Amino acid sequence: MATELADFLPQLDRDIRAMADWGKVADYIPELARVDPAQFGIAVALADGSMVTAGDAQKRFSIQSVSKVFSLACVLGRIGEQIWTRVGREPSGSRFDSILLLELEKGRPRNPFINAGALVTTDELLTGRSPRDALSEILGFLAAATGDADIHIDKFVAQSEAETGFRNAALANYLKSFGNLKNPVDYVLGTYFHQCAIELTCEQLARAGRSIAGLPGAPRLLTPQKARRLNALMMTCGHYDGSGDFAFRVGLPGKSGVGGGILLIAPGLASIGIWSPGLNAYGNSQAGTVAAEKLARKMGWSVFG
Amino acid sequence: MATELADFLPQLDRDIRAMADWGKVADYIPELARVDPAQFGIAVALADGSMVTAGDAQKRFSIQSVSKVFSLACVLGRIGEQIWTRVGREPSGSRFDSILLLELEKGRPRNPFINAGALVTTDELLTGRSPRDALSEILGFLAAATGDADIHIDKFVAQSEAETGFRNAALANYLKSFGNLKNPVDYVLGTYFHQCAIELTCEQLARAGRSIAGLPGAPRLLTPQKARRLNALMMTCGHYDGSGDFAFRVGLPGKSGVGGGILLIAPGLASIGIWSPGLNAYGNSQAGTVAAEKLARKMGWSVFG
Amino acid sequence: MATELADFLPQLDRDIRAMADWGKVADYIPELARVDPAQFGIAVALADGSMVTAGDAQKRFSIQSVSKVFSLACVLGRIGEQIWTRVGREPSGSRFDSILLLELEKGRPRNPFINAGALVTTDELLTGRSPRDALSEILGFLAAATGDADIHIDKFVAQSEAETGFRNAALANYLKSFGNLKNPVDYVLGTYFHQCAIELTCEQLARAGRSIAGLPGAPRLLTPQKARRLNALMMTCGHYDGSGDFAFRVGLPGKSGVGGGILLIAPGLASIGIWSPGLNAYGNSQAGTVAAEKLARKMGWSVFG
Amino acid sequence: MATELADFLPQLDRDIRAMADWGKVADYIPELARVDPAQFGIAVALADGSMVTAGDAQKRFSIQSVSKVFSLACVLGRIGEQIWTRVGREPSGSRFDSILLLELEKGRPRNPFINAGALVTTDELLTGRSPRDALSEILGFLAAATGDADIHIDKFVAQSEAETGFRNAALANYLKSFGNLKNPVDYVLGTYFHQCAIELTCEQLARAGRSIAGLPGAPRLLTPQKARRLNALMMTCGHYDGSGDFAFRVGLPGKSGVGGGILLIAPGLASIGIWSPGLNAYGNSQAGTVAAEKLARKMGWSVFG
């Protein structure tokens, strides 16, 4: 499998770079708007412990919403199923930053992978500790999951989002009005913006996902049941209102971020980090989604048979 | 595996029957409202060709929305991907009979497994043929899939729904107003009500799903890619606004009907027919969902690792 | 006042005819789609008993939703305030044929002047009598209100709408599914389509509104309180999601129809019938709305001071 | 008329105080939650220059959303009709603090009398000046309108709302995300909370409304057309999702606030200030609404005839 991949990834890299349409970088966070969309990297961690990469796989990028998987993992580790009293497990059918359902459903976000839900997860992580300690817990999880302590937060991106993240501020205040934030709004937002500004390379991201993929030799950071449930949530909710289409086309659980990253899981087989900063209409990486589909098809990786 | 199952299913049957809460039978279709909720059957078709059953597995029940899987399979076989110009592939986050999104999204249903989307599928199946021929095509598909021609439509149930199915009539008229039904409203509704009134036993349902599960020896009625895509749709959209929860708890693709049936697929491993007519708050079989969860956990069947 | 009007209306007629933009005739009812939009008529019934007209004031047009005022008047006469258990009194903020709020508000229409609410009113009128008798009651009310028995239903328009009125059929079925129609769906729709197909001239419409305007010498068909309340409903709900703008610009209660008619009331002063078949974006008469605004400003007629 | 009122108001005061149900005081602003609901005051400024009062008419209360009328009047005076590029003139059919439509309508509030719209008005008032100066302008308008400079802001109420007004903070941030606030969110919120915390007595409120009612001898602070348009907006939008019902029952333009105040206008006849702090389900004064209805009926004041 490693050999087949080693042949395939360079070709995939060429195919992606030959694509005319890279999508548009997120423009609502000024620091991200400056990134060149014509970049692409991929890294695949296999069950045999090998890592195969292509393109810009060593370049650091802002993981943004991919961080929601790791903050949820931390919360599940700490309080377990109690988190579901505060947030649901259903696809929202709405944009990542939608506030509409929050009014109809009285402040309980549909799932932890839309922004409203991730703010609740972060709030839970903050409870009983400082923003610094909450961020340390996520960074510590990532260090353990990747076996690599060289993981940082880009303060300029966090700052940029703090200055312009009005929609997240709206969501946080709205949650607070329903009593579904325990901590001060500013603490939650500050922690959330810093968590989103964590930088990883594709290779680090692929390593970070090994525990969720249940690969042999991966650090045991989650019980198998928790890993399966994270995968289930990624499958039904990982790509906002493009989740159904991603499941249909790619057939693997994944989580995207507006920085252009995608964590893709082939349970038991591989953990994949993909990055290309141009986005499609749903706010998911345009080239990254195409690459995920091509990779899954080529390797015959689909959870659906 | 067959041996393990042969031990487990009778115990599962006892456990389910010991449950206090059977849920409520669908009361909006008078014929279904008369069914005793305290019934339960399960049948598992395995990859080795064996069939293991328990409880009321030989009892016929109204498959209702489970039929949407088979009508979609027929349409995919006939016109393939063209169907997606008329209906989406995203979870709706709404009740099975919701009309709200249809207004916001101008007559294009979110997916083929909510009522609005299934009416479009049925309309496509009707195009160029009579209601009788369209129903024959679905029945023919089921006969081929099960290897059993003894499959019938309960005319009283179809009649009962025709007399009281005002919400489906609203959906069909609303679709027509947007030009997203080609055939007369009455033809589409009549065909749809008859399709929903198909009766199967759990064993027949399990046999019918073997092609979708891609079991060795199953009739080749679908390409592997089409089967995978049906599974993806069942995973993200198969249980209406309870789809995320089902994926989280059970970890397998499935499709429920208000008759209390569930078709559950363990890709490559098993095709499962479950029936218990009492429903939970989402309109999915209460005991059937519990049984699906227990079975998947016991057998270690999850697409998520 | 009659003299001032006699001077002004011909000028208004010329001004309107000089307008470049007549709007678009309703195209969802084929019979109405054939009407030439470049027509305009106005008739003003004054408190002194005089009638001043201009333009096509003697031409018959399809009153469509203006009929909702008269069917509500009949129902208020028959069962009084009981009707408010079935329909609200609030502006909907939605299009005339919206179904969205009906789902959120469980089958209770916001007000009797959107289609869903008018279907409930018509259903109430049908209760205990045949469609023919219900229509006779509305025609009888109009005959008494106008003092003119020469009022008819255009059967071709009613037929045309019956064949293509899928959105109204959706609304009626949806109401029925919530138990908020007592009579068979087809009876209600048939009666509703015929009621909408009543034809009046501007002069007849102006005469019909005199009781609602409370003009001296008008037939006493309504108590003063009922007349005031009809006016209040016309003010807040008479122009669908353009009601606020109409109140802002014109300052008088009114009710529009997609046939291009507007009944405009200056309480105690005048009852006005206006007709021009081209519609604006809200489905209200384009030129008719302009004429209403110019007339109200010229005459200093505003309920707001 | 003054004599009739002088007889009637004391009786109205007794009737109101005999009512069992005072409603509930607003509990989301802690300072307001402490107010005793069993209070009632009314003051009527008549066209002859006289003032008739009853009950707690000299007691100061927090005008809250009644201030939206005066801030809009200031903005109309300054930039006129341009404000309508940023906010609509239609009833919202939603609660005063709803955020749902703001998502569907991309950051343009339905009207200036719901919270979202009032934040836009306040933002306009802030443009080019400090919060202190913007507040001075509103206070100056009120001083001129009442002829009374003894008007103050209750800083404790403003502070209380600043600490708990998460829903308004959500609205302001959401507006900002669409570019529909020009000034910093904190400035707008701070100004808005202070504007809402203005205190008036019923008598001051009645005097303040004289210009809007167009009473002879009232300060000319608005053109007659602007006054009419304010009245039109109060009629269609002045009581949130209870506006239609208020128009139906009372028949006069009015604007309510969660402090329990109502400004009621009988154009050309009277300006009325009413206060009772207990609220009904729509967030409007419970006893105040009843008093408005009784007063209008007794005096025959209705704009609808």
Brief summary of the model shown:
Chain A is built from 14 helices and 8 strands. Chain A has 305 residues and is an alpha+beta fold.
Structure report:
- The structure is a homotetramer of 305-residue chains.
- The first copy, chain A, is of the alpha+beta class and 305 residues long.
- Chain A folds into 2 domains: 2-61 and 201-299, Beta-lactamase (3-Layer(aba) Sandwich), CATH 3.40.710; 65-198, Beta-lactamase, CATH 3.40.710.
- Helices cover 48% and strands 11% of the residues of chain A.
- The first copy, chain A, contains 14 helices and 8 strands.
- Chain A has helices at residues 2-18, 30-33, 67-79, 100-104, 115-126, 131-146, 155-164, 166-177, 185-196, 202-208, 210-213, 224-237, 243-249, 286-299; strands at 41-46, 51-55, 61-62, 152-153, 198-200, 254-256, 261-266, 270-275.
- In chain A, strand 6 and strand 7 form a beta hairpin.
- In chain A, helix 1 packs antiparallel against helix 14 and helix 6 (131-146) packs across helix 10 (202-208).
- Chain A is globular and about 55 Å long.
- The two termini of chain A are 18 Å apart.
- The mean pLDDT of chain A is 96.
- Chains in contact: A-B, A-D, B-C, C-D.
- Chains C and D meet through helix 12 and helix 13 of C and helix 12 and helix 13 of D.
